[in-house]
Amino acid sequence: MLGKLDWSAIPFDQPIPLGAAFAVFLAAAAVLCWISLKGYWPYLWSEWITSVDHKRIGVMYIVLAMLMLLRGFVDAIMMRTQQVLAIHGPGYLPPEHYDQIFSAHGTIMIFFAAMPFIIGLMNFVVPLQLGVRDVAFPTLNSVSFWLTATGALLVNISLVIGEFARTGWLPYAPLSETTYSPGVGVDYYLWSIQISGVGTLLTGVNLVTTILKMRAPGMGYLRMPMFCWTSLASNLLIVAAFPILTATLAMLTLDRYLGFHFFTNEAGGNQMMFVNLIWAWGHPEVYILVLPAFGIFSEIFSTFSSKPLFGYRSMVAATMFICIVSFMVWLHHFFTMGAGADVNAAFGIATSVIAVGTGVKIYNWLFTMYGGRVRFDTPMLWALAFVTTFTVGGMTGVLLAVPPADFVLHNSLFLVAHFHNVIISGVLFGAFAGFTYWFPKAFGFRLHEGWGKAAFWVTLVGYMLVFLPLYIVGLLGMTRRLQHIDMDLWAPWLVVAAFGVLVMIIGAALQIMQLVVSVRHRDRLRDETGDPWDGRSLEWSTSSPPPAFNFARLPHVENEEPYWSIKQRGIEEQSAETEAAYEPIEIPRNSPTGFVTAFFSTLIGFALIWHIWWLAIVGFIGAYATFVVFAWRDHGDYEIPADEVARIDRNGRAAQLAFLRSWERPV
Question: Which H or E element spans position 634?
């Protein structure tokens, strides 16, 4: 009836996961009770859970990312403290639990923190920057989010029911085969990533279609904001790379469930093919994450330097160059596999060459600041920290691209430090910068600058304290994934890294405090203009937050900085754009399709993990029925009357006109 599931799946003999699960359960129960007592369920259901508005979905992606970021950070804290306490001792985490923690940490941070954060920002911003009313497939967008949430839920269920994989964040075969991993940990990994991966692939198709086919009148490709270009490159990579991940994990699933031999040590299986395939997805994944962050930094450097982005066309070329070459470097992850000197040299050269594209971007950002009126608001601080720290991470990457050096440093903490150096400074700093930058657009009030700057400096110091020592112990020979330490030479550096984690905890607390203080003082931080940063692209031409239809009339684009041109013309004339006749606007109806699909997908995933076949069948039938009902719906859109469009738009135009009149007339 319940397959492999029984009471032994609950870790009654392990107080740490049991206590953590109990704390999460209490927190979730408290939140649900509070929502029920306040009577917020109808509002949440109609305005958020069933919403197909790209802005709402983007915000939900970011909320999910922040929750998973905290979960992954807790895993990181446990790893660093375990290693400090396990110098000549066992520490407090048994080996099997420690293995699950470092596996869950990488999985959560990449798939359920970094990816949703970046996708959330793309979802929210790209249609606004393109001057359109929504993404190409709004309901599919909702399905994508809820499938991602399903994957995150399954990973967290493994905390208390069963176990998670002990294989690392990429389940290398044959360790992940049933011979060496007979439990359900790898199965949790496989089904959570497969389900969320389908959601990510659908997002890629959606955003590529949106950018290529749904731009405002006059917005040619070379008039798109740089964030739209980097989002296009990122989503093209998603469309090209995620099927590789899906196919690879499907083959591993067939090995585990049906006794196939794709990656086993016998019957013609080839473990090396798993490594090739997983990294053929894995290295483009790095650029799937970092390219949108590059776009965020481009927007921020231009806005806070009060200048157009330097070398716009070279930035476009560098973006697409990185997009293409990112598929030609994957073998540098396993130079030691034995492919031969010629193959290693070819991939080493390609890895060094791809750094040229990033170098072009960094010089263009520096030249953008040169001669500008630079303002050091919190988003700009994150961007400046990125340039300095990412340059260090990039140089260590070029070092690792040299095969002889990689033979010495492969699988050491030097490699771990390099990876975190580029991902944290490139992706996480970019996500924080974008979050702070576009927060007023999403919610109508700015985040508190004082708390934001304090959080920035503390986080930056903690980040340096954690990962600079890891470079050093890596050079001293320390390998990764060590549950206990017996080398006194490494001990002082591990203590410094643990202290750095403590500093980062304070930084995270300050960021939470920034959010709390900002919400409490939102009236004082209110933005009535829709343009709190003196922005240059179309998202700042709408009210904050934007209406459901984004634009009462689709803007006409005449150059690379459409809103800047509109604004400068308005400042000179001391008037907003001439009001034209309003027309009714059709927007898609909210739909529970995404949420219901995710519910059945959760049943399917959980059932397949525990071999509860009847429940899996029920889930498949339910998911199929959901799509049939959606396909046969009678009315997919509803109309906002012209009078309502006019009322909403005139309120925003009044604030915009007051903002323009606050500027002095040019002499």
Answer: none
| Three-class secondary structure of residue 445 per DSSP | strand
Q: What is the pLDDT of residues 419-434, one digit of tens each?
A: 999 999 999 999 999 9
200 tagged catalytic: yes
Task: Give me the half-sphere count of Cα atoms (radius 13 Å) on the Cβ side of residue 14.
Answer: 21
Assess whether 79 carries a catalytic annotation: yes
pLDDT at 574: 52
**Closest by CA position to 247, among listed 293, 295, 288, 281:** 281
Is residue 61 part of the annotated active site? The answer reads: yes
Query: Per the structure block, which two tokens stand in for 312?
Result: 């716009």
* Tens digits of residue pLDDT in 66-113: 999 999 999 999 999 999 999 999 999 999 999 999 999 999 999 999
Identified catalytic residue from 142, 144, 167, 597: 144
Is residue 304 annotated as a catalytic residue, yes or no? no
What 548-551 contacts at long range (C-beta under 8 Å, 24+ apart), as own/partner pairs, is: 548/53, 548/587, 548/640, 549/133, 549/585, 549/587, 549/640, 549/645, 550/127, 550/128, 550/132, 550/133, 550/134, 551/131, 551/132, 551/133
Question: Which residue of the set 105, 418, 441, 446 is catalytic?
Answer: 418
Residue 638 β-bridge partners: 587
pLDDT (tens digit, 9 = 90+) per residue, 443-456?
Answer: 999 999 999 999 99
The per-residue pLDDT for 666 is 43
Active site residue 593: no
